[in-house]
Specification:
- By secondary structure, this protein is α+β, with helices and mostly antiparallel strands.
- It is built from seven helices and 17 strands.
- The longest helix is centred in the last third of the chain and has 19 residues.
Length: 298
């Protein structure tokens, strides 16, 4: 199978990750409308035939590109649009809508503050579902109803319920399915109150004043357990504010992996490995990245 005519080639994707390390992709495709889904089955076959990887990208707030050139197909999701039914409290949204923007609009335009804690949370709806994103006690799964997906293996569109999604801490069925499914849109029931945590969390002040800004994807490692946050462990082994090449752990929040604008993905990987090794050696705890590290197929 020759190259598909609708695939762009040699595209700069530096700005498709919040880390903004320099990167290109061999092939590139955008999904701007549901009609563009028709090519996914052919792209999937093309990748299998050429032994290429493919990767879906939405907001790019949880990705680290660990390559100079991606030897595969980057599929950029641009599906936008959402609506909220005040009578049923059901939110309908496409997968590339930003969860923070929706949460902010729900509060201002519909007096619906159930997602208040999501204001300022970086990332798209699709990414939030994929990794069961959460903050301040509110998780994506809490109000999730179902999602409409495209199955690349069969070319069929299917709907998965909350039970089907197998949500866990920062994980889901989709995350474990190795890019077989593309999230098109989803529904959430915002009538369900979450009583576990106080509703007056000042998450906006926290994000504005206590979280660093720059070339970062936010919290890099998962918290190992309730008693040990990743940031606390990084600080305990002396790596808070530590710099290696152009990469460093923020002096403001130790679990924020960043770079100074000149840092490379190699700098970031070296610092990640250093943190994992030191914490395993000194604390007997193994840190697991929350951010997805994307390598080329080996």
């Amino acid at each position: 199978m020759n190259k598909l005519e609708y695939l762009k080639t040699d595209v700069d994707i530096t700005n498709l990750s919040n880390f903004k390390t320099k990167a290109k992709t061999k092939y590139y495709y955008e999904i701007n409308t549901e009609n563009d889904l028709e090519n996914l089955k052919e792209i999937y076959s093309f990748c299998k035939d050429k032994k290429l990887d493919y990767l879906f990208i939405g907001g790019g707030t949880n990705l680290l590109f660990a390559f100079d050139l991606y030897e595969g197909v980057i599929i950029k999701n641009n599906l936008k649009g959402w609506s909220y039914d005040k009578s049923s409290h059901i939110l309908h949204t496409y997968s590339d809508e930003w969860i923070s923007d929706i949460a902010n609009s729900l509060e201002k335009d519909f007096n619906q503050d159930l997602w208040h804690r999501f204001i300022g949370l970086p990332g798209s709806i699709g990414g939030a579902i994929y990794g069961n994103a959460g903050c301040f006690g509110l998780e994506t799964e809490n109000n999730f109803l179902d999602a409409t997906l495209y199955d690349l293996e069969t070319g069929q569109i299917i709907i998965l319920s909350k039970i089907d999604m197998l949500f866990e801490y920062r994980s889901s069925f989709i995350k474990d399915s190795k890019n077989r499914y593309f999230i098109i849109k989803a529904r959430f029931d915002l009538s369900k109150k979450i009583e576990k945590y106080s509703s007056d969390v000042d998450n906006i002040d926290f994000r504005e004043n206590k979280q660093p800004k720059g070339n970062t994807c936010g919290s890099f490692f998962k918290n190992p357990d309730k008693n040990n946050s990743a940031g606390y462990l990084i600080e305990q082994v002396g790596l808070k504010g530590y710099k290696l090449g152009g990469a460093f752990f923020s002096p403001l929040h130790a679990n924020f992996l960043m770079h100074d604008g000149k840092g490379t993905y190699k700098d970031l990987l070296l610092l990640i490995d250093l943190a994992v090794e030191k914490i395993k050696l000194e604390k007997q705890i193994e840190l697991i990245p929350e951010v997805r590290i994307i390598f080329n197929q080996k």
